[in-house]
Amino acid sequence: MTALLFVLVVIGLYLLACRIWPYTACGRCDGNGKFPSPSGKAWRDCGRCQGSGRRRRVFAGKA
Ligand SMILES: [Zn+2]
Q1: How many domains does the chain have?
Q2: CA 3 to ligand 1 center in whole angstroms
Q3: Structural domain for 16, as ranges
Q4: Could you report the per-residue pLDDT of 3-48, keeping only the tens digit for each?
Q5: Residues that place a CB less than 5 A from ion ligand 1
Q6: What does the pLDDT read at residue 63?
Q7: How far is residue 6's CA from residue 55's CA, in Å, rounded to a whole number?
Q8: Whole-number Å distance between alpha carbons of 60 and 5
Q9: Which of 22, 42, 43, 61 could join 34 in a cystine, given CB atoms 3.0 to 4.6 angstroms apart?
C-alpha cells in the first residue's frame, strides 16, 4: 500500500512538472529548431517542431 502511494505521488509530481514546464527540446533538431547546411551559412527549419526547437510534453495538456 505504501509503495502504491509512493508511485501515485511520483506520478502526481511528474504531471505537475509537465504543467509548469510544458515544453521540452525537440529530439530531431536537438532544440535548435533548424538544420544547418554543410556550409554552415544556410539552414532549414526542422519539420517536426516547425523551427521552434521545442515540443509540447505529452502530459502538458492541450495548448
Ligand atoms: Zn525540431
Answers
A1: 1
A2: 38
A3: 2-60
A4: 999 999 999 999 999 999 999 999 999 999 999 999 989 999 999 9
A5: 26, 28-29, 46, 48-49
A6: 65
A7: 29
A8: 22
A9: 43
